[in-house]
Every structure is written in structure tokens, then in C-alpha cells.
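Q: Two folds, back to back.
A: First:
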Amino acid sequence: MSVAKLIAENRRARYDYFIEEVFEAGLVLTGSEVKSLREGRANIAESYASAEGEAIVLINADIPPFKHGNRFNHEPRRPRKLLLHKKEIGKMMGAVRREGQTLIPLKLYFNDKGLAKLELGIAKGKKLHDKREAAADRDWARDKARLMREKG
């Protein structure tokens, strides 16, 4: 996957969750939302996706109003429908219902064709001991690389 222009990234997601599967989804946006995204203004850190009826919806994603917009500007935190294939929607809904997993947005970007895309992951929450273990592994890898660089 070639990321043309990264708009927003949820860096905390990989620390707080085990990401099991990743999907690429389109978003249903208004014109002022696209203009605001082109300026690089968005925040997906506190957002999540949820099943509403037969669709997956992005909730609590913050796309600020377009600066030069008029009275028809968009609402910043409105729910946005995600464009996915029916099989993908079924897989996500099954994972959320049966296995108690959550849908976490990982990245928001424009692809090579200039379309806004969202990288969405099926995730399972980490416990505190899992987070500590991941931090210890990261520290050890850094120390090991430093030792290898010094010794040899």
C-alpha cells in the first residue's frame, strides 16, 4: 500500500490494542470536510467504529470546520459512514458481537487517486501486563542494537 498523503494517525492504538486484522475503508464526506482534510486538519485518536444497522460508522472523529466555509459548514464530530464490501462488514460485525473486539481507526490518508481512506483494525484490548511486556521488549531491542553497534 502506497500512502500518498497521511492526514492523521492513531499512534496510541498499537500500544493499547492487539491489532488482528486491518481493512481499508472509504468515507462518506461532505465537500467542506474534504477541504479541511486537504489542509491536514483531523484527529482520530479518540475515535472508534461501530455497527449501526447494516453499516459501519466512524464515531467521534474530529474534522474541524473549514476555515473559509460558509454557514453550510459541516459539524466537526458527526458520525461518518464507512464504505466497505458486504463481506468485510459481516466479518467486522461478527468479530465485534461474538469475540468482544473493537474497531479502531489506525490511519486517515489520501490514496494515490486522491480519495480519503481510513485504515481500520479489528483489535483486542491489551491488559496492563501486556503493555509492560511490550515496553520491556522494545527496551531490550534498543539496548541490543546499541550493544551490537558498540561491539561489532
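A: Second:
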Amino acid sequence: MTPKINFHELAKLSSAERAKLHQRTETDLSAFELKVRPIIDAVRAEGDEALARFAREFDKAPVQASEIAATEADFAAAEKSLDPKVREAMEFAAFSIRKFHQDQMPEEMWLHEIRPGAFAGDRSRPIPSVACYVPRGKGSFPSVALMTAIPANVAGVKDVTIITPPGPNGKIDDATLVAARMAGVSKVFKAGGAQGIAAVAYGTQTITKVAKVIGPGSPWVAAAKRLVSHVLDTGSPAGPSEVIIFADDSINGALAGLDLLIESEHGPDSSAYLVTWSRRVAEQALAAIPDYWKQMSAQRVSFSSTVLGGPIGGIVLARDEEDAIAFCNEYAAEHLEVLSKEPFAYLGRLEHAGEILLGEYTPTTLGNYVIGPNHVLPTSGWARTASAVSVFDFLKRNSIAYVTSKGYPDLAKHAHALATYEGFDGHANAVSELRNKILKLPAN
């Protein structure tokens, strides 16, 4: 029996029903937070022993407290066992990722003359340390290691750590270890889920506390990030995968159906919609998807069909072009793929998305792996205000100012007036005749 695929006609939905289509699995993390809090408390109290226990309990991995860190032997074994074709593909991807993020780097410092004798600008400096979270629950993701650790390295972060769940054999995924080395990272730890986030937030006997954590994860990871956000910069929210395939009447609907399966196969907690105002495109996609499922593994079909037949997935038929664009902007998807013979015709009206992939030759797969822009993207609607992971996530800016003796008097006069109005005597005195006397400046 072919699984059902939702077919939503926006013209027939109430505003409440339409709003339900925008929900995500991360909309309410309160239930996860209740379960995550004791995990965090245990890691704070027990350190590596708790990490090993949770690895055995949650990951079904035979890990001992003395085995949390990857060893040189682990790296060597991974290099030896990795399929050469996979390594070649990773090197190809790493080059693109590094080149993109190198081009993204801002100038180290700029200083402009804002007013005569008054200069101001910014100076960029790397953050001191970061942990890159590489998930593993529904597969292994060396691409995440590349996408997070390479820009950290490009930005100049001196202390980069990778945390990732161990596999059932108690080991770290071989490709992830090789990816770490490609990215210049030697510290990789068996610490997944909420316990991994707690470990980098508070530190353990093996894992050093860091300043920031970056990387996508499950609602458990998202909940843990929220609970430790007062001691750790948790970056932009990056949860379960989500995509909108925006398609106009110029394309074959079978292509839209093919690309709809890319993100829907990530897991049952993903979100995936085809949005079009062409009934022909919608019906062609609907007809093609079951045949595509026949060419996928049972596990991936299970994930994809759960998403496309569940409450936050399927095919959306909009009233018209404007309605389709409005839906996309309301949703603010992690990935937004624009299928059209003329994709740039829509770009100016598509406001909110983690990434926008344009045209029939730019499927999300390419964005996920080899084009270069980062695939760690804001989810759960955060694309309205947040951006893809970039070198800027690993940099901080110092505002720089310099005023000359010629520029000082005019600025001081106006600053004195504002400080006096706001009642700050010390502020006002610092730019008054008191300073003029010390610096031997002419009286105002």
C-alpha cells in the first residue's frame, strides 16, 4: 500500500489551518527540557562517567569514561578504512567550503573619518573557542564537520573541538574523523545529544569548556542548548531539517517531487513542502513520488512518507503566484529551492529563508555538500532574523574609535549637552573645562 501524501489547497483552508502548516517539531520544547535537565545536571556532577553512561544508554554504544576522546590510533584507522571515493568527494567539498568562507572574510579592520578629526570603525577578531556538534542519530554526517570546522579554522579560532555521538560499535564515524583532520581539528569527542552540549558548556575531565557551540541537532540538542544558553553561546537555532520546493508552471512536476524527497528523508521530525500554484505541477509531483520511493531504502521511505503524510509536510497548492510567495515568506524555511526556467524573477520577493537555491540545476543536495555556502542554517522560522553559519559566527567585532585634538572640541560640546540632559555628571565632567585644563586645551 502506497503511503498517503498530503495535498493542501490553501484556498480551502481557514487561517488557523494554514497556520498549522507552519508549525515545526521545535515549536514547543518544554517536554524535552524536562527530560534534558537531569542529563545536564548529571554531566555537571559526574563529567566523563556520565558521558559514558549516556552513550551506553542512549546510543547503545560500549563506551567507557577513559575512551571519550578520539586517539591517534582512531584517526589512523579511519584514514585507512575510508572509501577512497568518499575521501575524494570530501576533499572536493572541503575545497569549495574553504574557498567560499575565505571569500566571506571581512577586512581585519576599517576606520573611517566620520567627522573632521573623529575616526570610527570595526576590528574583527576570532572567538577563543568553539565546539562543532556533528549529529549521528539517523546516519553519519561528515559534511557537518566540514561545514562547521572549516569556517572556524578560516576565521582563526585557535581552539576548535568536535563532539559527536559514538556508533553502536562505540567508535566515532570514520568519515567524521577524516573530515576533522581535513578541517584542521584534532580534538574529537564521543559526546552526543544533550550530554554533549552539557559537556562543552561546563567541561568534564576530558572535554574543555568552550565559548560557543555550533551545529544542527535533534529537539533534545535544541532543548539542551536553551538550558545552557546562560553560560554558552549556542548560535543560531539549527534543528530538524525543513525545505520548501517553490515551483512555477514552467517546470516538470516530477522534478519538484524528486527534490521534495531530499530533506523529507532526513527523519520523521523534518518538514517538507512543495509549494506551487500550478495544479499540473502538483499532480505530476504527486504521481511521481511513489516511484521514487521504490528506489530508496525502507528506512528513508519511512522517514519521507511520515513527513509528507504528517502534519507538517506534503504538497501545497496556492491560489496564485502571490499566495505561493506569501506562504514561503510566512514559513521562513531552512532551505528554499526555486524551480523555474527563470528563477531570478522571484528572488526579489522571497524574503525569508536560510538559503535560496535557484533553478533546475541547483538541488538542495548540491547545497548540502559541495557548492560552498554553509548548510547549517536557521530552522523553525528563525530565518526571519538569523542567517546561515558563516565566518561571522566565529568572529567578534571590536568597535574602534580615535579622536584627534582638532576633532575633539566639536564632539565634546554636543556630548556634554546630551550627558547633562540625561543627568550623568561624570560623563559631562569628562568633556568639560576640567579636561581642557588637564590637556591644556583652549576654553570652550
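Q: And?
A: The first strand starts at residue 7 and ends at 9.
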